[in-house]
């Protein structure tokens, strides 16, 4: 299992302060800015993101790696698969 705290993301989107579906929309835009095989980090303090991001990633074929809690927000990690 990958230690999420040690991941070097190739791209990052900051969706803190944005309510659902804002973080998901930011992730959709952000995933296009990293290459296949690279990791996108999504910062969000919306609890719905914990459900929305993995569901979206699975539906469109990317790998949801999980999230880590930071200071008042979560860092989600997705590997672009296509």
From TrEMBL:
One Pfam match: TusA
Organism: Desulfamplus magnetovallimortis
Signal peptide start-end: none
Record lineage: Bacteria, Pseudomonadati, Thermodesulfobacteriota, Desulfobacteria, Desulfobacterales
Domain UPF0033: from-to ranges: 13-37
CDD domains according to UniProt: SirA_YedF_YeeD (cd00291)
Protein name per UniProt: SirA family protein
Superkingdom, taxonomy of origin: Bacteria
InterPro entries for the chain: TusA-like, TusA-like_sf
Gene3D superfamilies documented for this protein: TusA-like domain (3.30.110.40)
Membership in a protein family: Belongs to the sulfur carrier protein TusA family.
SUPFAM superfamilies per the UniProt record, alphabetical: SirA-like
């Amino acid at each position: 299992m990958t230690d999420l705290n040690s991941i070097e993301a190739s791209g990052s989107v900051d969706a803190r302060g944005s309510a659902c579906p804002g973080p998901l929309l930011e992730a959709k835009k952000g995933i296009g800015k990293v290459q296949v095989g690279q990791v996108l980090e999504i910062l969000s303090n919306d609890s719905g993101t914990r459900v929305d991001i993995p569901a979206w990633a699975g539906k469109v074929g990317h790998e949801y790696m999980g999230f880590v809690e930071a200071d008042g927000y979560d860092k989600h990690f997705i590997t672009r698969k296509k």
